[in-house]
Amino acid sequence: xxxxxxxxxxxxxxxxxxxxxxxxxxxxxxxxxxxxxxxxxxxxxxxxxxxxxxxxxxxxxxxxxxxxxxxxxxxxxxxxxxxxxxxxxxxxxxxxxxxxxxxxxxxxxxxxxxxxxxxxxxxxxxxxxxxxxxxxxxxxxxxxxxxxxxxxxxx
Length: 155
Prior knowledge:
The chain is an alpha+beta fold.
């Protein structure tokens, strides 16, 4: 089990994003408070927060977002830290034509995706940047309509 008496010990650690995740008011989202989250979300968030590999999760029909310290370094001040707990589609509207179909593919139960050296231009640090990414989206819990970018790297 990933909890003890506090019910949210699975959020321990995780650097800056761990602290932000613990202090975020999740009760204002469709997820509700962390002590009510499904075990699959608890486990995945724990793995994400403890990893030095850039990782990102979209959870549920609203695609509520989680990410770790390593991923935060790729975002720029336009998205970090405001992306935590935000709706995925709204946060990433400028690239939704690229990533939206990939996420839909995973959430439909069709499988995982993988892209190598794919151009995904993003706005960060005040300007649009051409960034080549190697990344994959994988299902976590299809009953919760969730997907994760479990392996992200910029090239």
